[in-house]
Fold this protein.
Amino acid sequence: MIKKDKTKTPAKDALRVLFCTPEVTPFSGTGGLGEVSGSLPAALNRLTEKNIDCRVISPLYGSISQEYRKDMEFLGYKDIPVSWRSKYMGVFSLRRGGVTYYFIDNEEYFKRDGQYGFYDDCERYAFFSRAVFESIDFTGFIPDIIHANDWQTALVPVYQDAIYHRRFLSTIFTIHNIEYQGYYGTEVIGDVIGLPAGADHLLEFNGGANLIKGGIDTANIVTTVSPTYADELSYPFFAYGLDGIVNSAKHKMTGILNGIDVKTYDPEHDKMIAATYSAADISGKSTCKKSMLREAGLPDDGAPLVSMISRLVPAKGIDLVRGTIEGMLSQADFKLIVLGTGNQEYEDFFRYLESKYPDKVRAFITFNSQLSHKLYSASDIFLMPSKTEPCGLSQMIAMRYGTVPVVRATGGLRDSVSDCTMGEGTGFVFENYDMSSFADALSRAISLYGNKKSWEALVRYDLKQDFSWNRSALEYMKLYERAAQK
């Protein structure tokens, strides 16, 4: 049962922000964007020293549970334009956890198995982006700022620029991962998106229509999910062809590091783990490790437990692991547990590794939230050797549980993990994307583990790190205040 929200209504003169997202936990989500959307608006509204009313708008997917639907209020409906089409739009609202959520209903577009990957995704999210504006008639919430997120909502600033022209409204567009751009043939500009004559150039790019390009060009402010990623997008390797567009928008671009939900990921109160613990008393962490090893069927012989919780795809640096880990297992004493799914060749590799080293390796080729909590709490060392990583949440979650990360210095990994080899730091960082650099970083971590006093000091230090949304919310608040002055 959902508890009734007792949060006070924001003052009438509050800065009004509409956070526009294709997914938001706990209602919907496929990854980090859903977690950001479920955490950042609530953190903003908790800033007692600031006067802000941040609300969220997202599609009403068919997968959203009845647990939430039963408490939604129906605000109204009308038909809205999607180019030459006229499509039904229903609007629902729900107040939960200090945040007002608006849900856009259209069963033709959103009552499906899954969220993305359909032939008509461009049309679905063009509809949703129009609904962001059209729903204001029913919500009565007139935003000072609309904050759009990723390619699915990149048309929001485009529509403001080309169609709606709402006075005193600023738009912010956040790039969570520029690899996914919403790239289609130019025919969608007239047939689906419905831009007025003379506005095609807002989306045209390299012979097609590129939604993220349009969002970058038309938004008043562009953000990314870490300062380093904002810098990296200037280079072709990271920008996936959009480096020229990014560089032309450098004057309005900034990077703000994401936070994590410190209530969901909390070793002091986590009911999914074998024992709770904190920086003041880390004894429960060893209990978690013993329990995990027992569950995995691995011997508890005092060796460090190394883990990886990841999508098994090239961007996550799996090639570095595949090229080095077998040799290291034959020479060093440690256990390895992998949790995740992805490319078949990577899944098969870790299954092979488990069969060859049954006393050292376990491969859980699945997605299991409860098992991930257990593994974060049980592990000594966490692997995240990503080739690219816009922000990354797993390294922060690992440190939240006192598990020391081994990461490559890219994107949010560089911004959130500092190397401890020469003294104070939170993990082991390597610069070059090559197997020897990764193997050296992991070897350094395993070596320090042998020094019990130093290792425990590092674990306690990581447990004290603040990766809550409070810090990030303050940075976004500064951005919103600047945007509202435009």
Summary: Residues 1-8 have pLDDT under 50 and may be disordered. The two ends are 43 Å apart (CA to CA). DSSP finds 20 helices and 18 strands in the chain. The longest helix spans residues 469-484.
